[in-house]
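Collaboration report, partner site 2.

Our partner group contributed sequences for two proteins of shared interest, and the home lab folded both. The records are reproduced in the order in which they were received, starting with the first partner submission.
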Amino acid sequence: MILYYYKSYYIKAEKEGKNMLFTSPVFLLLFLPIMLGIYTLIPTRLKPSAICIFSLTFYGIANFGNPAALLFLLLCAIFTYCATFAVFSVRKKYVMVFVVCVLVGVLAVLRYLGVWADVSAAARYIPIGASFYLLACFSCIMDVRRGDAHMPRNFADVLIYVTYFPVMIAGPVIKYKNFETLIKPENIRFTAAGVASGIILFARGFIKRIAIAALLEESYDSIVDRLLHYTEEPLSIGVAVILAAILLVSVYYAFSGYSDMGRGISAMLGIPLAPDFGACILSFTPADYANNFLSSLSLWIDDYIRRPL
């Protein structure tokens, strides 16, 4: 059953231009094994640099049909590196306001295109994971500005953080002040036990995405298709509630699956990350739901938006 839904999911992903995500055969059978094999042979002191190269390679392949995406990612990293110096050396509010306006403006344009562009145009022009690495850019600048993190020693420090591919698709959202500690060579714990636990976590996320989310997505599409083509009666409240529940659960398991896969890959690299999803489906209030759905994003918003305001 898993293979059947994996096949249908992958065909759909290819049509949308998502041919190098964590669930693709290219990633599972080629990229991940080769990466782990090379990573095993690399000395600990060079592992952060290797992670940066792996991340850029992954991102380049994932956006193979959109070569400008890699350039956009590098421009974001360059802007972040320059902005950290600006906000640290020039302690003026207008500098930080300018930086925030640039990042928010870029994010707003990408979200607008994502909503109104058709599937093929979105796959061609909108970089994969742009929302998450733009949040990373903001976190790096803000943490340096507030003194919560050290100034980047060089451009490579910013590039490693912004391009860290395990969290690029669906999180967790890692703050720069936490990442600069995690990525230090002395803190990377690359062990057989860590790789094994990462594989188990990755497999759990894979099952969530393929066996549960893909099944629910197909059921939702099938029901909607039948309603549109075989009946002219208005949608009843009961059917609407069922459709909303199916869609809600499928979105949860899709994001949760990708998050678990990302955390699993990070654990394989010797950088364990905290869980990002709770039992949000069982939440009783919208606030509880938001805190349990991509909780790292809720903490990010609390740290960088709500409390400063």
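Second partner submission, folded after the first:
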Amino acid sequence: CLACTSACPAGVNYAELFEHARAEVEERRVLASPFRRFIRWFTIAWLFMDLRRLRSLGRLLRAYQALGLQSLVRRSGVLRFLPRRLRELEAMTPTIQRRFSADLIPETTPAAGRRRYRVALLTGCAQDLIFSDINRDTAEVLARHGCEVHTPARQSCCGSLHGHNGELTLAAELARRNIDQFPPDQFDAIISNAGGCGSHLKHYASLLQSDSAYRDRARLWDRKLKDIHEWLIEIGLQPPVANGQPRQVVTYHESCHLAHGQKITGQPRAILRAIPGVELAELPESDWCCGSAGIYNITQPAMAEALLDRKLRHVQTTGATIVANANPGCLLQLVNGARQRGLHLRVAHPITLLAEAYRQERHSA
């Protein structure tokens, strides 16, 4: 969760420390087993090294859900014969979007009005499959702010999964791919809307510091990489026009890597406060982890569940009907947690709420 980086008075870079320690653990084969090697090869070295494979898997899962097979399996009772942990994992299966980012966003979205900036938009891995509508909303909001938005249909993973799991060679390879696809000298900003991805993306320079061919471009990349909230406040947020929007109480749960990794805390709140009708209720322990933490809810389910339960209890004390968050893993964790507990709670990205306000403004004009 990187809370240690915020708490440490000496400013120790724990993220880099963890990654290099995990790389050494993998190199020494401390945890090696045939099953573990297969899982790591399938996910880290094969599935996430080419997102076409991930999207193909996503389409299969979408068909399984759209044809009613998932609902049928759940109603049949067959899942009760599975081990408890497998039943818990099945319950966490995300709903795959009908259309992915490339189906929703043109490769070039022109600026609305005069073009002020030329930016690139990174659509991510899980975000593309589960929350592609957030990517669409991000492109619309950027265009509203005078940005010409470049969103190539085929993109690569940011490499955070690989870096966090000690596969620094693969993480560096993905960093080079991204720098080649989005040359930082050709854009005013390179935009990420996922807290976890953005935290990793801003550290390509340290990842490629020994690569003379990419070192300087990686430094420029780090300077150009902007979280969407950070960028909008930097260039001047355009508040939506108030047109009698209904009052809605919103609370904000901070993505660990956005708050502790990127030190971005005030900008999302400023955006939420600028939305007509929104009353922002501060969430107790807003910067505490929700238990998602990448794959922590898979590897440490008991602790993850305790953190999620604590988080949702705090959400309930705010009286909010909407909880805003800016990271796909957290969003999915909160969605699943609210559903399992029968809570009538909407979970949304701050940029989605902003985009909806802009659309309401247009419809009322």
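Feedback sent to the partner group on the second submission included the following. The beta strands are 108-109, 117-121, 147-150, 189-192, 225-227, 248-252, 278-280, 322-324, 346-348. The mean pLDDT is 94.
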